Amino acid sequence: MTSPRAASRLQALELAGPAGRIEALLQESEHRDHAAFAVVCHPHPLFGGTLHNKVVHRVAGTLHGLGLAVLRFNFRGVGESEGEHDLGAGELEDARAALDFMRVRYPDARRWLAGFSFGSWVAARLAAGETDVERLILIAPPVRTQDFSAMRTAPVPKHVFHGSADDVAAIADLEAEFPRWAEPKTLRRIEGASHFFDKKLADLSKALEEVLGPAAGTGTSRTT
User: What CATH code is carried by the domain that includes residue 149?
Assistant: First the structure.
């Protein structure tokens, strides 16, 4: 795990994607001594979602603070990323390209995936099909409007964080679906938080640290 005193750098990157250029930001230690990395997927492109979304930014920063190298990127058609919105199919391949980039950059690191809202749906489907993903972090997954049925059989450890006052993806919908998901899994409610965690980003960070901190610093296996 990266020392908390290690110098950090934020790099703007252009990745090769299936629809052309993918705009990305990579936060890592200058010494690149990370035992794990995370790829973070942003919310819906047609509703203003980008890699700069405040929830995505906070999740990325928190995970980096736990010692991970973190890549966030724009789906096709967003910002400087080439291509057009593809209803989640092409976006899944964009996320796969981002994951592949990090695999090459950190071949010996443990692999985590994270996503917020629409991005959680993309991350969930990718993690379900990639056996080397060690952990999946889902922030406010919209289980009523998107198909998360892959979570019912996927063995990847699932860590879900959801606002109790979510006005876009009601937590009641998640609580009805979550028991069907395969173990191992955890669900952390962020009390009073809306979908975009307005005035609750610090609470989200604290929850991420509490749940994921032990795993970030150890060689924990996929089944823990």
Answer: 3.40.50.1820
